[in-house]
Amino acid sequence: MSHERFERPTRFAAGEESFGGVFAPETLMDNLFALEAAWIAAGEDESFGAELTRLLETYAGRPTPTYHARRLSEAWGVDLWLKREDLLHTGAHKLNNTLGQCLLACSMGKKRILAETGAGQHGVASATAAALLGLECVVYMGALDAARQAPNVDRMRLLGAEVCIVEHGQRTLKDAINEALRAWVTDPEAHYVLGSALGPHPFPSIVAGYQEIIGHEARAQFLSAHGSLPDLAVACVGGGSNAIGLFRGFVDDASVELVGVEAGGVGSEAGQHAARFRGGRPGVLHGCLSYLLQDEDGQVQATRSISAGLDYPSVGPEHAALRAAGRARYESATDEEALAGFKDLAAREGILAALESSHALGWVRREREALAGRSVLVNLSGRGDKDMATILEVLAPDQDGEGS
Amino acid sequence: MSASRLEAVTTRLAQAGECGIAPYVTAGDGGLGRTLAVLHALEGAGAACVELGLPFSDPVADGPLLQAAALRSLDSGTTFEGVVDLIGRYRSAGGALPILAFSYANPILSRGAEEACSRLAEAGADGLLIPDLPVEEQACIAGAVQAADLANVFFVTPTTADARIVRAAELSRGFLYVIGRTGITGTRTELGREGSEFLARVRSLTTCPLGVGFGINGPAEVAAVAPHAQLAIVGSALVEHVHQAALGSSPDQDIDAVCARAAANFLTQLREGLKP
Ligand SMILES: Cc1ncc(COP(=O)(O)O)c(C=O)c1O
Question: Is B155 exposed, middle or buried (0-12, 13-18, 19+ CB in 10 A)?
Fold first, then answer.
């Protein structure tokens, strides 16, 4: 059956401005209409919701705890709390989304899913959900990312997924999404499980909808442990799924400052970072209008980050709207600052964080004087096992692990 | 001239019950000078109009051959202004083919649709095709294409619902771009029964001239499409043929001339498919 229109708003509005939309080739439009219809139907279907909740609670390990990091709080002089998405099955928040989308795929009668991955966490979470639900799974991954996140490539293959290494472009997340979109055009019988809150409508809304459980849980947990709301909620922003998941829990609480932390890479010149809100301007990539790192001619610029999951030139459109509305602000942390955050968390709390999540910690650490005495809830979006090789390479000469 | 130059060609073809060939060329593949030579050669060989592709870094609707051409073009330093200049040079040298600029949304929108459309039209482009701008987003450019008097052309595919085909046809000027099958550019295909049924469905929904593309490699495919279309659109096969000619040329040859000849020969072959 061919569809005629979208039922839900395709844009995220902020006053006169709006972001998102459906900038997709006509060859994909019917897939997108069908996906929106399935998603709306699933949202109204109690048995779908019950099955997703069952899997999240008994398989994935929800709720994840909100942990008061007392030793690190003392070291930094900030009242630091961590939402422990690193403890979710497969080691990152990505599984919240892949369980939801793979159930959607099943509800549409699909037998196969396609996915892209940067850090490999979304690829692993897709392969996991596919194995669990009996779906075939093909994951596209840039060659550079496959090299720096090798353990995740092995995990995907052991879970039965086919991993297609993408050799063109910058060979990172952007190029993997290009390939996955092309694959979906030629394989409309598959469902494309987009891994972050970006892409053409309805993806940004679907992904945020499956991730907002992070923020809702964290709000209730923080309130019951602390008796009030946090002063700040902080998350790293790659495509923006873990951050929007956290922010949606607090967006109506005007007293809670929302801070997204982008990858500052190794410098502020073009090509040296992935700080879209600092170096970018509105533009269209991968189906949505948002902030985009691009040259004056509208060509997409190269990005750089120690963290594969943040190494992407665009950002989810809901973040662009939150920023335009003045509801959230976006900062960045450099590779070095992220590593300092990583080291302090390991040494004081016995937790190895993913390099992505370490950017949120790195920002708090850098701003610790300004934040002195305030309560800060950081979304610890994933664990760091996948990053061991990268981290050991940089930290080898200096292993004292103490904050300075 | 703008939109009316394209409309004049497609209306004449429709009235005569004929089909013409609409070649696609990636601007700046091998340098803009080569593209200029290729445009004149295609005109000499009897093309009906030309789609001039502005290269984009992330062409998600394109297959490997056109992706590679876009990257070659960007590597050779092609810019928006360079393409505008190329169109102007083609016109000042007497080039008369209707030109449809083919660009992904970002290079147009990030420049500002008004500015981009007026620059293209002033230089002598006649239409605009944006593969990642479906009718749902046409408001982003509607005012700009109208002010610049460019013919906006939208796409339909076998999975497009009837109501959206009607809408795309209403919004299109010159012709409606019919993608004969699902898929990305450059995948070999036959029209097949489903393809003919789809073209018949489109024909029953609109009187707009039809340009049919994706997957046309040679005269046989042109012959299959011709009875149902006013334009047979040929992209990847031509771009790759010209590129191979460049690779196969010897150092003492004028490569631009070699490519121009290759383009003309390829078009002449394709036109064999138009003979009754
Ligand atoms: C642990 C972790 N955190 C964060 C991200 C960034 O993605 P997003 O911004 O969608 O949360 C990734 C992406 O791979 C990740 O693996």
Answer: buried
Written as six digits, the tokens of A321 are 């709207």
Q: Which band of pLDDT confidence, cut at 50, 70 and 90, is reported for residue B183?
A: low
Mean pLDDT of A333-351: 98
Chain B: residue whose CA lies nearest to A6: B136
The answer to whether the beta carbons of residues A294 and A313 sit under 8 Å apart is yes
Atom of ligand 1 nearest to the CA of A245: 11
Which chain B residues are closer than 8 Å to A23 by Cβ?
105, 132-134, 137
Q: Which residues contact A28 (CB under 8 A, 6 or more apart)?
A: A181, A184, A185, A200, A287
| pTM over the 0.90 mark | yes
Residue A402 has what pLDDT? 46
Chain A: residue nearest B163 by CA?
A4
Q: Which residue in the list B7, B29, B43, B62 is annotated as catalytic? A: B62
The residue whose CA is least distant from atom 14 of ligand 1 is A309
User: Average of pLDDT values for A113-139?
Assistant: 97
Measured in angstroms, how far is the CA atom of residue A382 from the centroid of ligand 1?
8
Q: Catalytic site residue B221? A: no
Q: Quick check: A26 and B109 CB within 8 A?
A: no
* Distance, CA of A386 to CA of A391 (rounded, Å): 10
Give CA–CA dist B149/B152, Å, rounded: 9
| Ligand 1 pocket test, candidate residues A241, A259, A286, A345, most atoms within 8 A of CB | A241
With the CA atoms of A262, A263, A266 and A270 taken in that order, what torsion angle do they form, in degrees rounded to the nearest 10?
-70
Stretch 156-175 of chain A: residues touching chain B, C-beta under 8 Å: 168-169, 174
What element of type H or E holds A396? none
Helix (H, G, I), strand (E, B) or coil at A78: coil
Judged by phi (left if over 0) then psi (alpha if -120 to 50, else beta), residue B228 lies in alpha
Task: Find the CB nearest B107 among A3, A27, A297.
Answer: A297
Tell me whether A138 touches chain B (CB under 8 Å): no
Residue closest to B113 by CA, chosen among B139, B151, B135? B139
Task: Identify the DSSP state of A60.
Answer: I
Q: Which residues of A are catalytic?
A: 94, 116, 381
Range with lowest mean pLDDT among A18-32, A387-401, B70-84, B232-246: A387-401
Which residues lie across from A18 on neighbouring strands?
A13
Are the C-beta atoms of A323 and A302 separated by less than 8 Å?
no
Predicted pLDDT of residue B192: 74
Query: Using 50, 70 and 90 to split pLDDT, how confident is the model at A20?
Result: very high
Q: Tokens 């460049």 belong to which residue?
A: B246
Of the candidate ranges A19-28, A379-388, B183-192, the one whose mean pLDDT is the lowest: B183-192
Residue A398 pLDDT = 54
Across residues A322-333, what is the average pLDDT? 98
Say yes or no to pLDDT of A365 above 80.
yes
